[in-house]
Amino acid sequence: MMHDSGGVQMARVLKHATLCLMLLPRFLVAAVMLWLLDFLCIRKKVLLKMGAKQDSPDDPPVCVSDSNRMFTLESLRAVWYGQKLDFLKSAHLGRAAPNTEVLMVQERRQRVVSQYADIADFLVVYIEEAHPSDGWVSSDAPYQIPKHRCLEDRLRAAQLMLAEVPGSNVVVDNMDNESNAAYGAYFERLYIVMDERVVYQGGRGPDGYRISELRNWLEQYRNDRMNSHTAVLHV
Ligand SMILES: *[C@@H]1O[C@H](CO)[C@@H](O)[C@H](O)[C@H]1NC(C)=O
Fold first, then answer.
1. Hey, which of 133, 177, 180 would you mutate to test ligand 1's pocket, going by the most ligand atoms within 8 Å of its Cβ?
2. Centroid of ligand 1 to alpha carbon of 175 (angstroms)
3. What pTM does this model have?
4. Tens digit of each residue's pLDDT (9 = 90 or more) over 203-231
């Protein structure tokens, strides 16, 4: 009995150590990047370059005000957490989409969503805050929201989103952050799920967050569907 639990504990420690080792290289790269971004001349250049790479007006530009420090204990903690979630997520392209528990906030429908309403349902899953007022603070955040301590906090914050989000249904992640973990969603991420499978997996936001990619996928899908319908009619 004693031996067993010792073994189990050892396995857990080993697993954790392996995870740390595997994540360390990309974490260090991100940390150096954040450190460099605190030199405003470098930040300006990097943001300019990132802006130039964005060739679609759909993709929101990454903006960081000069007053925001990028290299802090909280930012490093947030980046580590995000990379860990990404590494451990269970959602993978082409595989079954995790069916996590979420809570309904309100149903809504607006313009952008209605463009693809014939082929897709849109769902916004509000997860934890990327820039809570008691964590990695950002003066660019439109609202000052502390870390959610309970579901009521989260639901209240999600209500704010309803006013801003262009359409779609809004639900919130549960307090175990199950959806966030399964989809490696932190800070933000786009997915397309079809027949319970992941058919599109966007990159990690903010830099990997590309609405244009999502739009391209949906356009392609719609075209393919129309073509196949035509083919059937010809036969
Ligand atoms: C989920 O995230 C919230 C922050 O929004 C945090 O307070 C809570 O402890 C997290 N839950 C777990 C199980 O990690």
1. 177
2. 6
3. 0.82
4. 998 888 888 899 899 999 999 998 887 65
